[in-house]
Amino acid sequence: MDILVCVKRVPDTAENEIEVNKSGSDIERDDLVYSVNEWDNYAVEEAIQIRDNVGGTVTVVTIGDDESEEVLRREMAMGADSGILVSDKAFEGSDGKGIATLLKAVVEKGKYDLILTGAQADDGAGQVGGMLAAMLDYPYASLVNKVEVKGDALTVGREIEGGNQEMNEISLPCVLSIQTGINEPRYVGIRGIRKVASVEIPTYGPGDLGVDASLVGTAGEKVKRLDYFVPVLGEGAEMLEGSTEDIIAKLIEYLKAKGGLK
Amino acid sequence: MADIYAYITHKNGVADDSALELLTAAKKIDAGAAVTAIVTGAGDVDKVAAEVAASYAKVFTYKNDALAYPNAEVVRKLLITAVPKGAILLVPHDTFGMDLSPGLSIKLDAVFLSDVTDIEGVSGTTLKAIRQEYSGMVSTHVTCDIAGGAVVNVRPGAFPPDESKSGSGAVEDKSGTIGDLSAKRKFLEVVEAEVGDVDITKADVLVSIGRGIEDQDNIEIAQELADAMGAVVSCSRPIVDAKWLEKSRQVGTSGQTVKPKVYLACGISGSFQHLGGIKGSPFIVAINKNPKAPIFQVADVGIEANIVEFLPELTEAIKEL
């Protein structure tokens, strides 16, 4: 099985406080720690496990600037066989549909039986996998938390409401978006990354992919962000302040009053 | 006037809460819109259609055995022909809507807005809406041109239900227009969640832990606090993903829905999927080292602290009572 996994370099929300910059035009990007999108890491691990079971190859692809190459190397250190960097000024600012358009061109340049994405990334839209599948006329399943190879088809579990799992049979080739928790992504050490440091990673630009420039980048952007701001969900908590002893004393009073202590 | 449709999710013959939330969202796009509800399914369709007809201007029903279970690959095929060119389709952003809509927008050649939390309105053919990014830590205003139609996924619970019951009662059976529904993905079965050793849905007090617990070995810190309080330990998704606790302990839309009296959110940032699993307006205490965590906006009481240090001190103090 030849598998393509689409990955993205994103600010690590577990490591960073995401804040809006002064003008509200973007998040504050100075000093951000970036990593591979958490969902994508599960997708790559799943691809590696499938390959190890039934044979084949795992290719990882990302769209971004030169710095995005580091996430490809990280996933190759995990066990992906090769990487593809899709990068060009003309691709910058692509929205979900633009990204899916570029990935479609990547898919058509190769030959893949299975295409995996993470269920979502930093923008929380969870849209690229479904769009890509529709563009390719491949079947699609989202939020996948189980994959079993059954000849020319897969049995896949989708995580649905209430912790239930929806089982489907899906024919190949297909696109799946992978949910976290499907597996335990292996640890990647510095040594692993060093091993793949000199592996050549091809960069695909507009000429290689043959995409219409008006469909990608800011030129093709259908959904435009106007600004960023801090959401207001509710009135906000009463923050308990003072020494730890004071805070605990106040908290215990609240817990007693609200039935939180038995 | 915008031509607006709403896809009605239903289960066991009852429309989902999102049915009336989509109507509110539709009226924020166009206050005077005559919104059409689309109900697909097999046996339950008429019952659900009668229910939503009280609220919607029109209801279109599509009855077919192939639609008995909402397999997004099949429903998408139906909607490609059922939704007119240039129309706006609203879909709940649940696990079905996430499966359906991105691909549908491509097939309809319509713009796609995912997980919308609010709609500011339409000026000309430009729709302005609000979404969230980075696990709800920041919001953005987005705009798109809806002249060619739009598929808008609406976050469940983000809009209040439209209780005006100002529908016409008109139901039109469109089953005769259904074309080929064959799909390359076949629904097999739903496997129900396993029942765990503890039922967190019955607990009055929950000590719930998230990523801030940092390490599997620290879970016992939470358990000791729960024991001292007479509470039960629950958690957010990352703890289950890491296999530190069983899935049955997970609070959220993809886990359990809980209705405690008191909820201690410890090291939990407060994603909408997590908050979606907390019902019944409990007293929420948020303890988090990140003062900007969204959980502080919905909590009643907040404490900025590292839970790994704070929880043992709290446990000691409670034991001394």
Description:
The complex is a heterodimer of chains A (262) and B (321). By secondary structure, chain A is of the alpha/beta class. Chain A has helices at residues 38-54, 69-78, 96-109, 128-136, 190-195, 206-209, 244-258, and strands spanning 2-7, 9-11, 34-36, 57-63, 82-86, 114-118, 140-150, 153-159, 165-171, 174-178, 203-204, 223-229, 238-239. Chain A has a nine-stranded mixed sheet with strand order 9-8-7-10-6-1-4-5-11, with helices on both faces. A two-stranded antiparallel ribbon of chain A has the order 2-3. In chain A, a hairpin with a 5-residue loop joins β8 and β9 (165-171). By secondary structure, chain B is of the alpha/beta class. Chain B has two domains: 4-177, Rossmann fold (3-Layer(aba) Sandwich); 200-319, 3-Layer(aba) Sandwich (Rossmann fold). In chain B, the strands form four sheets. Chain B has a seven-stranded parallel sheet with strand order 7-11-6-1-4-5-12, sandwiched between helices. A five-stranded parallel sheet of chain B has the order 15-14-16-17-18. A three-stranded antiparallel sheet of chain B has the order 8-9-10. In chain B, α3 packs across α4 and α5 (219-229) runs parallel beside α9 (307-319). In chain B, 55% of the residues are buried. The chains are: A alpha/beta (262), B alpha/beta (321). Chains A and B meet through α3, α4, β7, β8 and β9 of A and α4, β7, β9, β10 and β13 of B. β12 (223-229) of chain A pairs antiparallel with β10 (138-145) of chain B.
Summarize the structure.
The complex is a heterodimer of chains A (262) and B (321). Chain A has 262 residues and is an alpha/beta fold. Chain A has helices at 38-54, 69-78, 96-109, 128-136, 190-195, 206-209, 244-258; strands at 2-7, 9-11, 34-36, 57-63, 82-86, 114-118, 140-150, 153-159, 165-171, 174-178, 203-204, 223-229, 238-239.
